[in-house]
Write a structure and sequence with these properties.
Length: 118
């Protein structure tokens, strides 16, 4: 029943992507191909060149998030400066918005990687 409700456009989380590149495009395409998971990806914010789903620069992100009641921000780690990531973490924390960090391990090879949090 939940899958049916979400496919009709209800009961979803509004998300944006901070950054660009292959990882950002993969996430964007996944959300658009699978509405049954309950995510509506509104677009990208990055400081690079204009592209079809770019909503603005990283400086425009915070105002857009608050105005459009965004629930989650996906931060493409490989495309961000460390200082900007810290700013996003602080902004998300202060406004009770879930921030998900997306590391990009492409190009590393087929190694068995394990991610640990300390």
């Amino acid at each position: 029943m939940l899958k049916s409700i979400r496919e009709k456009g209800y009961n979803y989380r509004r998300v944006i992507i901070a950054g660009s590149g292959k990882a950002a495009n993969d996430i964007y395409n996944f959300f658009h191909k699978h509405p049954e998971y309950g995510y509506k990806c509104l677009g990208f914010f990055d400081d690079g060149k204009q592209h079809e789903n770019r909503l603005g620069s990283l400086n425009d992100l915070e105002g857009f998030v608050l105005k459009n009641k965004v629930d989650e921000i996906y931060c493409i780690l490989s495309e961000m400066k460390t200082s900007r990531v810290h700013e996003l973490i602080s902004f998300a924390d202060n406004n009770i918005i879930r921030l998900k960090i997306v590391p990009d391990f492409r190009g590393i090879g087929n190694y068995m990687l394990e991610v640990s949090f300390f």
